Each structure stands twice: as C-alpha cells, then as structure tokens.
Amino acid sequence: MQSNIGFALLITSLAGLSTIAGSLIGLLTRYPSPRFLTITLGFSAGAMLLVSFTELLQSGIESLGLTTAYVSFFAGILLMFLIDALVPHVYMGERCDLHGAPGKQPDKQTNTDRERLTRAGILLAVGLIIHNFPEGMASFAGAVHDRELGIAIAFAIALHNIPEGLAVSTLMYSATGNRWKAFLWAFLASIAEPLGACLAALTVIPGLNDTVLGTMLSAVAGIMVFISLDELIPVSRSFGEDHLSIIGIIMGMAVMVIGKILL
Fold it and tell me: What is the model's pTM?
C-alpha cells in the first residue's frame, strides 16, 4: 500500500485540476448545454454511488466486519451533513445558475447586482471546497487501497468538477468583469482536493493498517453517497431533463462495472 501513496496524490491532484479546466471553459468558450450538464452530473453521481457501495463499503466490511464498517459509513454521512448545515455556503443549483445575472453584461450591472453575484460566487466556491476536500481524501484512500479503484473515483470526481469550476468562474466574472479574479476563485476550489489528500496522507499513513484503511474507506463511501444524493443528482435534475439525468446515472454505473470487468 505504501508504494501507492505517490500515485494516489498524483491522481487526486489531477482530479482537482479539472475544476480549473471547467473554469477555462467558462471564461474562454460558450457554455455547455443543459443536456450535457444533466448527463455529466448524473454520470458522475452514478459512478460514485456504485463505487461507494460495491468497492469502498465492501472493502470496509471485509476489513472491519459488518457493524464497524456501517458505523464508519454513517459517520461519514453525518460528518458531511454537519458541515453542510453549519458552514455558510451554496451548492451549484441551489441559489445561483451557470449564466450569472440573466441578460446583463458585467459592465452594465448595478452595484447591487455585483454584490449579490460576488457573494453567491464566494459562497459557491466555499461549497465546492467543502466537498472537494473530502473528495480528495476519497480518491486518495481508494488509490492507496487499489490503483484501479483510485482511478475510477478520480475519474468520477473530475467529471463533475468541470461544470462546478465553470459555475464559479462565470458567476465571479459576471460580478467583477475580471477574468483573473474569476479564475483565482476556481483555482482555490480546485486545490482543496489535493489538500484533502495531503491531510489524509499526513494523518493516516503513519499508522496505516487494514483496520485504519477499512475505517477510512467506509467513511469515504458515506461521504461520496451524501455528495451524490445531496448535490449531484438534484443539480443534474434541476436543468429540467429528468429522464436524461436517470440515463446519466445508469451510464455512470454501467461504465464503472464494465471498466471493473475489463480491468
């Protein structure tokens, strides 16, 4: 397992960088279509749910036994719920959209518009940091346990980081008219993922054994399930393409299964 640490940090960093890729899409090109975002977010949620229940939680049960693994699983869910309830933030789709202030260019907005959009952009960035940090721990833990599992988790995370980076950058650009400030906020959200991986490495690796790893994998499964159900699926459906959202979820699950079989 120790030999996988460097690899785990690498793929976690790459998953985080996909937030920056989304930011660049928002600043340099046209917005992706709602249908594309619906499928992408649904796909990511399906992949994360399948990996959580069939890989992460299952590995925890094998290491810890049924009771301890499920306690760790629900502890992960509870942790995300408490953070979600106590830290001021917004998630994409809760109180802001991908297009900023409808019909307004940055130089035509009032001070009130700018203040509202700036606050929404900052709160959205905080929301991304809140769930990017444990996602970094998730991809790290998965890769330390098994490289293929780590790649699958990082792929699912990277896929939904792209529209999230796009949302932050477009909101901040709409508020400030400054592309560099918009990019900076997306960058801050992106580095939360490798920071989460580094924290996991510093705190867990020194005493890493099967029990510690099993506990971490089970808790990470709970975290990923919460993020999928509380954020990814609701936002995927918010674009008004309910059937496409379900198709995306099924596709995400199917691709993870096919990948596991082939690898």
Answer: 0.73
